[in-house]
Design goal:
It is a single chain. The protein is mainly alpha-helical. The chain is built from eleven helices and two strands; from the N terminus they run H-H-H-H-E-H-E-H-H-H-H-H-H. The protein is globular. The protein has a two-stranded antiparallel ribbon with strand order 1-2. 73% of the residues lie in helices and 2% in strands.
Length: 191
């Protein structure tokens, strides 16, 4: 069993490359976030008052009963963001930026896990290429810059599939539990 120090030194290049890809993803999602897209779309703005209700009126919805019963996870994340960064369009979009960046990490892990039967170099290159492509993919970057609750779906999907594949391969209970948590959590992301 390799300790953390041994793991870090053995995979130093891979860790640095993955951190670089995640930094690229974060920059693409954060750069000029105040300016682009301009203003809030109606769907983005409609969740702001509910986030404020969570912060200032002790509301604790499991589902947002207005708007035909919307999932509340993004509203809670937006409430945290507003508490940290103040009430602004940017604060509403920060959770989507983080979710989009974490999806890049999740895709890297998923591709690495599913390609564990491939030659190590090929699996490694494919995982890095997949993560890099998602980091700069226009549609994913654009979606990750808007406060739409659907941005959480790919995040939960990649991590669910990662943990499910890992559980299937290793037959470890913890991996099955994490897969279940991701699947259950996905019910609070989007219809």
């Amino acid at each position: 069993m390799i300790g953390f120090r041994g793991f870090a030194s053995k995979y130093r290049t891979d860790i640095a490359l993955l951190v670089g890809i995640l930094a690229i993803a974060l920059v693409f999602r954060l750069l000029f976030l105040d300016d682009y897209p301009r203003g809030l779309f109606a769907d983005e703005a409609s969740k702001g008052p509910f986030a404020l209700d969570i912060l200032f009126r002790n509301a604790r919805p499991i589902f947002n009963e207005s708007q035909s019963g919307r999932e509340a996870l993004l509203i809670y994340l937006e409430a945290i963001s507003i508490a940290l960064f103040g009430s602004s369009a940017t604060a509403l979009r920060i959770p989507a930026v983080i979710a989009g960046t974490l999806t890049v990490l999740g895709l890297y892990l998923l591709v690495s896990e599913t390609m564990n039967v491939a030659p190590p170099g090929q699996a490694r290159r494919t995982a890095f290429a997949s993560a890099l492509l998602l980091a700069v993919l226009y549609s994913h970057v654009s979606f990750s810059r808007s406060a739409f609750r659907g941005v959480l779906v790919p995040l939960f999907v990649v991590f669910f599939l990662y943990w499910l594949n890992r559980a299937w391969r290793t037959n470890r209970r913890a991996s099955f539990v994490w897969a279940g948590i991701c699947l259950g959590g996905s019910l609070y992301t989007y219809t």
